[in-house]
């Protein structure tokens, strides 16, 4: 008897190669990293805002690290499959991981920030750089909203399943 539930798709056989080149960040890296695909493949405007914010944060004695950034569609799919396994259903997994075709990480428009002190600093100062927390349940997930500099960040979604961009 198969241990794979009927509603789940098997991971690709090449799962083991979906590492750093596909956007995995095994160890947090600075936002100034020039070699890690998860950082260098971010949208240039997002990366620029992030680096300006990190420079200001350093002045306050706080470092911003990237725990996740750009991801290949294959890596995003792997994360989604892992979330379905962890949470028991696609519906529950959708509260934490978007599909490859709807993820802002795949397009390079989202970044996950750490450590906790960095997230706190960014939650207090991010709007000055257009960096906004998008999901209430993911205090590490930030996206660029240039209009936030003048008008503040938009209201947060409870989680990704409430974000219309993920409803495709």
From TrEMBL:
Q: Which Gene3D superfamilies match?
A: 3.30.1380.10
Domain D-alanyl-D-alanine carboxypeptidase-like core, by residue range, is: 42-132
UniProt-listed SUPFAM superfamilies = Hedgehog/DD-peptidase
Query: Superkingdom of the source?
Result: Bacteria
The answer to keyword Magnesium applying to this record is no
Q: Which UniProt keywords apply?
A: Carboxypeptidase, Hydrolase, Protease
- In which residue ranges is the amino acid composition biased (Basic and acidic residues)? 159-168
Q: Does the keyword Hydrolase apply?
A: yes
**InterPro entries annotated for this entry?**
DD-CPase-like, VanY-like_core_dom, Zn_M74/Hedgehog-like
Give GO terms: molecular function aspect only: carboxypeptidase activity
Q: Name one GO biological process term.
A: proteolysis
For the region Disordered, give the residue spans. 149-168
Name of the protein described by the UniProt record: D-alanyl-D-alanine carboxypeptidase-like protein
**What species is this protein from?**
Actinophytocola oryzae
């Amino acid at each position: 008897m198969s241990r794979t539930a009927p509603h789940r798709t098997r991971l690709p056989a090449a799962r083991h190669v979906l590492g750093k080149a596909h956007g995995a960040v095994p160890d947090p890296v600075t936002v100034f990293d020039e070699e890690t695909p998860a950082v260098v493949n971010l949208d240039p405007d997002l990366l620029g805002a992030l680096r300006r914010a990190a420079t200001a944060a350093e002045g306050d004695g706080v470092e911003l690290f990237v725990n996740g950034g750009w991801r290949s569609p294959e890596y995003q799919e792997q994360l989604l499959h892992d979330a379905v396994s962890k949470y028991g259903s696609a519906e529950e997994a959708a509260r934490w991981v978007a599909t490859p075709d709807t993820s802002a990480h795949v397009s390079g428009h989202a970044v996950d920030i750490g450590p906790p002190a960095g997230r706190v600093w960014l939650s207090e100062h991010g709007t000055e750089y257009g960096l906004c927390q998008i999901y209430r349940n993911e205090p590490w997930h930030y996206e660029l909203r240039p209009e936030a500099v003048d008008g503040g960040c938009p209201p947060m979604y409870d989680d990704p399943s409430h974000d219309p961009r993920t409803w495709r």
